[in-house]
Write a structure and sequence with these properties.
- There is one protein chain.
- By secondary structure, the chain is an all-alpha fold.
- The chain has one domain.
- Helices cover 71% and strands 0% of the residues.
- α2 crosses α4 and α8 packs across α9.
- It starts with 9 loop residues before the first helix and ends with a helix.
Amino acid sequence: MFQTEKRQSLGAAALTIIDLIYHNTVRTVRKTHRDAIFAILINILQTLIMVGAFVALFEILGMRAAAIRGDFLLYVMSGIFVFMVHVKALMAVASAEGPASPMMQHLPMSTTVSFWAAAFSALYIQVISLGAILAGYHLLWTPIEVHQPIGALAMLGLAWFFGVAVGSVLLAVKPWLPGPTAIVQQIYTRINMFASGKMFVANTLPLTMVAMFAWNPLFHIIDQGRGYIFINYNPMKTSLMYPVYISAILLAIGLIGESFTRKRVSLSWSAAR
C-alpha cells in the first residue's frame, strides 16, 4: 500500500535500463521460437531462399551482365542483406509491445524498453544470420573480398536504423488505426522489393529512372554499401547523408508520436482489438 521511492543516480538508472533492454531482447528473440538457434536458422533459410530467387531471376531475365564487375553472388547478397535488415527491424519495432500490453504493468518495464528490445533483437538475429551465410560462402564456395568492411557494416547499421525509424512511426499510429497500419506496412515492404533498387546498379541508370528510386533512403543505402564492398565501384548518383537525415526525422516523429499515444492509450484498446 505504501511505497518508498528509491532515487537512483543517472549512471545507475542507465545501467538499469540497459539491463532491462538486454533481458527483454533475449525474451523477444525467443518469442519466435523457444530455441534461439532455431529462430536464427529459420532466418538464414529465409535469406538463402531470397538470394536463390534473385539469382534465378537475374539468369532468366539476362541481367547478370548488368551487375557490378566482381563476385556476382556477393553483388546479389549486398542488396538482399540490406533489405532484410531494414524490413526485419521495421517489423520488429512496429509489432513491439505497446502501452496497453500486460507487460507494462510490471515496473520498471516501459514502452521505451520494449521498443529498443525489439529493435536490438532484430539486429542480433540478422547479424548472426548474415555472418553465418557469409562465413559459409567464404569457406565452402569462394573467398570473399570486401574493399572496406567497416563501411559495409556501417551501411547495414544504417539500414537497421532506418527500419527502426519507420517502425517507430507505425508503432505510434497502430493503436489508433491498427487495420490501416498493417496494410501500410505490407504495402511498404512489397514496394521496397522493387523500389530499394537492389536489382540495379545506380550508376548505370538514366536520370529519369534514378528519379523513380531517389526518394527511397534504402536505394541510397544499398548503392553506397556496394561502393564500400566493391573496389571498382564508386557511387555517383546517391547520397550517404540523405538516409541519415530521413531516418533521424522519422525517428523523432515516431518517438514523439509514441509518447503522445502512451499518455492517451486505454487498456480496453488491447481487449477490443
